[in-house]
Recover the amino acids of this structure.
């Protein structure tokens, strides 16, 4: 394995989010609250996580941020784009995720962050419409405007480095096509306004073209096409996608590996969600829901390997539903009914009712992805960062490889990559040495 050593996180890091809705404002407000000692960064591995180094007998368990040079929260500037004109304080107030008393304590900092005009097209997100939108003759023109925004943000905020994390809505379902195959075909498509290039891909192109690390927090194609991978390798840019792994899918990737490890069969897994925020409204459209459905359905297939374990999972029925329910707001409810079978095929049931807060779960993922992509950039790691699959519902992989969905295997890969960047031995748990 080649040596990897990250350069120090000197200077200021800018974190840009396409989309300044519930997720992004909860993330930004949370980071500022943590900086001011008004809360704890619970859920953020980069802030609270520890890691074992060496043998168990050495008892070395430092914080991750003490093993690798992760940017300090005090050295981060925030910005983004949105189709609505509300500043981050107003947007966070409207989202009704965080306590208003907390928001009022950091009102000045939040009010100072105003959205840049967004690249938005109602054809890809039919349920939304707003006034703060860029105009351009071509999609390439829009991409160049985004690049100017990034340059201006970097200068105004005195940033040495910038990363981008997509926090916008789920777009309509688009399959990979000819326009996505090479950088040349993608750039031609941008100049010719190809309909298979959605706004999220324009953001991804602008970022990666400039060497800005990019993570995709929605199930959109975005950077998950051959052209974007080629461009990332050309510009030495780390990329990761797609779709933040938060509520119901997080529970699936925790439960399914355990059931499989004990060789318990599964006859059916029915999942339904009720959600009332902007994401729920967008997903109420069938074309947008299909994009999310594909992301959610693939998880169990890979973990359980039904072709290999036909008698246990070969006939499993898996259904996912998302229902828009405005009274619930950002407080999503994910309900799962799992029909399992044990010894001699006797049936049993598991029911999970996860009353979760969508943006509260997503906010630390935005932070971790941003800081770890910045770390990867300083370690000269380019292209797909599969070690960040831990955070994503539909992890991006190299062509021909299936994604790993088992949360615990993803976590081991992430920790071993951190050990490697930090110049420490990876841990295999092989157990040849009793004290290993």
């Amino acid at each position: 394995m080649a040596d990897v050593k990250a350069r120090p996180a000197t200077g200021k890091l800018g974190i840009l989010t396409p989309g300044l809705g519930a997720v992004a404002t909860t993330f930004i407000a949370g980071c500022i609250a943590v900086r001011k000692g008004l809360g704890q960064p619970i859920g953020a591995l980069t802030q609270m996580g520890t890691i074992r180094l060496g043998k168990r007998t050495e008892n070395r368990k430092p914080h991750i941020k003490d093993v690798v040079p992760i940017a300090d929260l005090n050295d981060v500037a925030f910005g983004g784009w949105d189709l609505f004109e509300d500043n981050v304080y107003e947007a966070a107030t409207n989202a009704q995720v965080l306590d208003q008393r907390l928001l009022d304590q950091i009102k000045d900092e939040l009010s100072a962050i105003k959205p840049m005009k967004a690249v938005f097209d109602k054809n890809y997100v039919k349920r939304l419409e707003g006034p703060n939108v860029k105009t351009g003759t071509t999609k390439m023109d829009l991409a160049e405007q985004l690049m100017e925004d990034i340059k201006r943000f970097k200068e105004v905020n005195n940033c040495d480095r910038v990363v981008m994390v997509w926090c916008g809505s789920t777009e309509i379902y688009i399959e990979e096509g000819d326009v996505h195959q090479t950088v040349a075909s993608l750039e031609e498509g941008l100049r010719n306004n190809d309909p298979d290039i959605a706004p999220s891909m324009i953001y991804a192109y602008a970022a990666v073209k400039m060497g800005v690390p990019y993570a995709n927090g929605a199930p959109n194609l975005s950077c998950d096409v051959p052209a974007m991978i080629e461009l990332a390798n050309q510009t030495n840019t780390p990329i990761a996608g797609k779709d933040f792994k938060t509520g119901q899918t997080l529970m699936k990737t925790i439960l399914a590996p355990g059931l499989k490890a004990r060789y318990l069969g599964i006859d059916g897994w029915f999942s339904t969600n009720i959600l009332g925020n902007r994401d729920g409204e967008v997903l109420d459209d069938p074309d947008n829901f299909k994009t999310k459905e594909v992301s959610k359905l693939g998880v169990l297939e890979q973990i359980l390997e039904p072709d290999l374990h036909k008698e246990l999972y070969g006939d499993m029925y898996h259904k996912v539903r998302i229902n828009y329910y405005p009274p619930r707001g950002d407080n999503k409810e994910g309900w799962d009914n799992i029909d399992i079978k044990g010894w001699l095929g006797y049936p049993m049931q598991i029911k999970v009712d996860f009353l979760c807060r969508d943006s509260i779960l997503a906010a630390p993922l935005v932070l971790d992805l941003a800081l770890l992509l910045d770390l990867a950039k300083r370690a000269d790691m380019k292209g797909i960062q599969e070690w960040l699959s831990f955070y994503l519902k539909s992890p991006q992989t190299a062509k021909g490889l299936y994604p790993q969905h088992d949360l615990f295997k993803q976590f081991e890969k992430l920790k071993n990559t951190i050990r490697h960047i930090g110049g420490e031995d990876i841990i295999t748990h092989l157990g040849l040495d009793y004290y290993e």
The domain at 248-355 is CATH 3.30.360.10 (Dihydrodipicolinate Reductase; domain 2). The first strand starts at residue 13 and ends at 18. The first helix runs from residue 22 to 35.
